[in-house]
Amino acid sequence: GSSDDLTFPLEIPPAKIRFTKLFIGGEFVDSVSGKTFETIDPRTGEAIASVSEGDKEDIDLAVGAARRAFDHGPWPRLPGAARAKIMHKFADLIDQHIEELATLDTLNAGKLFSWGKAVDIPSVANTLRYFAGAADKIHGQVLKMSRELHAYTLLEPIGVVGLIIPWNFPSTMFFVKVSPALAAGCTMVVKPAEQTPLSALFYAHLAKEAGIPDGVINVVNGFGPTAGAALTSHMNVDKVSFTGSTEVGRKVMQAAAASNLKTVSLELGGKSPLLIFDDADIDQAADLALLGVMHNKGEVCVAGSRVLVQEAIYDEFVKTLVEKAKEWVVGDPFHPNSRVGPQVDKKQYEKVMSYIEHGKREGATLLTGGKPAAKKGYYIEPTVFTDVTDDMMIVKDEIFGPVMVLMKFKTMEDGIRAANNTRYGLAAGIVTKSLDTANTVSRSIRAGVIWINCYFAFDNDCPFGGYKSSGFGRDEGMVGLQKYLQVKSVVTPLYNSPW
Ligand code: ADP
């Protein structure tokens, strides 16, 4: 298609970009170097704002502010209920600015505005509320010692945490990390992705308005190899929680090991399988398969990008899928009828297009899509490949775009083998009416989340994270709170006996 086919916005909500500096010690400040970088609107490829560019010196200042707030400030020492009260206020303030925040993520990341307004932004407020509910229920255990000793554990906040955020869910990932860290009593330095600094800065402003003490949340925009690397190798950071690519995850872990052995949790890439068994409702399965890889233009770490379909229904499934792929209208993410917006930036756009070219060259059959969808901006047609082999790059690598590879399997065992034939292990989906199949497959796939007859069924109470090269540690749920705490054992003789 050409740009004429695109759905253009009816009306863009007012987008006044209010915050573009670094947020350190409760103030918006310029970077030490005075440098700025341009942040881009992927709908046009044009700059929309100049943002302060943080580097090592700025990370130093931010870590210093967080350290002081942790060592001497009120936040870690407040009763949990008092922290919770402030977190609830923060959540309420987000609710009052849903439209403005959704606009920033659409402008900065090409995300669907309607979705941001209805789902993403309201749910980040709920993430804060979920973890606020835990803030006054963090406690250790009394231990049953084998000798005459009284012992208990304390759960203490781990300290200053570095939170490195990806660009595909700028708001969701910010709060998936910030909320449990706040509840635990940690202080933090957040490094948003360089593509999407705008909403993070707005959240910093709202945090201050809610009464979160200065230095508890610091936000340093900047690039990975400079600001990001400085945070991961900082001697005064106690933990890093990272979401991003597997390659950068390796660097994060190396930097942590080489500096002060800070603890690390990594939520990395995926090439998640969706297994569709021959007892499935073909219509529903095709809808689910498309949702799994086209949602958020395929820029989803848990995207179901490998769709495995059982032999008997394969041909009919393909027909239905290709027909339904047309429903995934590419267009301006502000338009309510658009379902696929632009890829986040030029680099991602070119990366996805080069995988598509690779797929064609390697001999896969292109069922639909495969081309840019507009003359301007980073739009790509929803793309489906079939007749693929295990060694093709489009089957092995995470593409992070609206690109599905479709494969056929015979028996359940074959399906399980194919599903596990990946270095990743983030998520998997199963479509079947058989309880036996669902039970067997969900226990046989090495992945952190299994969705049966659904996909993207996230919830604050439902942990997610990776097996294998998809990383380790879990976000969300009470297990997602644990990584911001550490265990201290306290032991004393039970009786006043000579020791
Ligand atoms: P992608 O390749 O999809 O852009 P990245 O893993 O590069 O994903 O980015 C995720 C986050 O990691 C971003 O905030 C980015 O700035 C940051 N980052 C990139 N390189 C490094 C690095 N060497 N050290 C720390 N953080 C980094």
Automatic annotation (TrEMBL):
Alphabetized UniProt keyword annotations: NAD, Oxidoreductase
Location in or out of the cell: Mitochondrion matrix
InterPro entries the record matches: Ald_DH/histidinol_DH, Ald_DH_C, Ald_DH_CS_GLU, Ald_DH_N, Aldehyde_DH_dom
Listed transmembrane segments: none
Active-site residue list: 267
Gene3D superfamilies assigned to the protein according to its UniProt record, in alphabetical order: Aldehyde Dehydrogenase, Chain A, domain 1 (3.40.605.10), Aldehyde Dehydrogenase, Chain A, domain 2 (3.40.309.10)
The EC number(s) this enzyme carries: 1.2.1.3
Group of enzyme by EC: oxidoreductase
Any single Gene Ontology cellular-component annotation: mitochondrial matrix
Similarity comment: family membership: Belongs to the aldehyde dehydrogenase family.
Oligomer status and interactors: Homotetramer.
Full protein name: Aldehyde dehydrogenase 1
Organism: Linum trigynum
